[in-house]
Amino acid sequence: KWVGSRDVKLHEYKRLAAAQSERQLDIIQSEWKDRFGDIPEQTQTLVMLARLRIMATDLGIPLVRSDDEAM
Is the pLDDT of residue 61 over 70? Predict the structure, then answer.
Protein backbone atom coordinates (compact mmCIF):
# COMPACT_ATOMS: atom_id res chain seq x y z
CA LYS A 1 0.00 0.00 0.00
CA TRP A 2 0.94 3.67 -0.23
CA VAL A 3 2.46 4.29 3.23
CA GLY A 4 3.30 0.77 4.26
CA SER A 5 2.90 -0.35 7.85
CA ARG A 6 -0.15 0.36 9.94
CA ASP A 7 1.97 2.11 12.58
CA VAL A 8 3.45 4.53 10.05
CA LYS A 9 0.01 5.20 8.60
CA LEU A 10 -1.46 5.96 12.05
CA HIS A 11 1.46 8.25 12.89
CA GLU A 12 1.02 10.20 9.65
CA TYR A 13 -2.76 10.50 10.11
CA LYS A 14 -2.16 11.83 13.63
CA ARG A 15 0.21 14.44 12.19
CA LEU A 16 -2.48 15.45 9.72
CA ALA A 17 -5.11 15.72 12.45
CA ALA A 18 -2.77 17.79 14.65
CA ALA A 19 -1.89 20.32 11.93
CA GLN A 20 -2.85 23.84 13.00
CA SER A 21 -2.09 25.79 9.83
CA GLU A 22 -2.18 25.44 6.07
CA ARG A 23 1.62 25.83 6.11
CA GLN A 24 1.90 22.73 8.31
CA LEU A 25 -0.32 20.84 5.87
CA ASP A 26 1.90 21.94 2.97
CA ILE A 27 4.97 20.65 4.82
CA ILE A 28 3.29 17.32 5.60
CA GLN A 29 2.22 16.87 1.98
CA SER A 30 5.71 17.68 0.75
CA GLU A 31 7.25 15.18 3.17
CA TRP A 32 4.73 12.52 2.16
CA LYS A 33 5.49 12.99 -1.52
CA ASP A 34 9.23 12.72 -0.82
CA ARG A 35 8.88 9.64 1.41
CA PHE A 36 6.00 7.73 -0.16
CA GLY A 37 5.56 9.01 -3.72
CA ASP A 38 2.41 10.40 -5.29
CA ILE A 39 -0.37 11.02 -2.78
CA PRO A 40 -3.50 8.93 -3.49
CA GLU A 41 -6.80 10.67 -4.15
CA GLN A 42 -8.35 9.44 -0.88
CA THR A 43 -5.46 10.91 1.10
CA GLN A 44 -5.66 14.16 -0.85
CA THR A 45 -9.32 14.30 0.21
CA LEU A 46 -8.26 13.93 3.87
CA VAL A 47 -5.80 16.80 3.42
CA MET A 48 -8.56 18.93 1.87
CA LEU A 49 -10.81 18.18 4.86
CA ALA A 50 -7.98 19.15 7.23
CA ARG A 51 -7.64 22.46 5.32
CA LEU A 52 -11.36 23.02 5.64
CA ARG A 53 -11.15 22.34 9.39
CA ILE A 54 -8.32 24.88 9.76
CA MET A 55 -10.16 27.52 7.72
CA ALA A 56 -13.37 26.97 9.70
CA THR A 57 -11.47 27.29 12.98
CA ASP A 58 -9.80 30.50 11.78
CA LEU A 59 -13.25 31.89 10.92
CA GLY A 60 -14.72 30.89 14.27
CA ILE A 61 -16.91 28.13 12.85
CA PRO A 62 -16.99 25.46 15.56
CA LEU A 63 -18.33 22.54 13.55
CA VAL A 64 -18.34 21.35 9.95
CA ARG A 65 -20.54 18.38 9.11
CA SER A 66 -21.18 16.44 5.98
CA ASP A 67 -23.76 13.97 4.79
CA ASP A 68 -24.30 12.09 1.56
CA GLU A 69 -25.41 15.24 -0.27
CA ALA A 70 -23.39 18.17 1.04
CA MET A 71 -20.80 19.45 3.43
Answer: yes
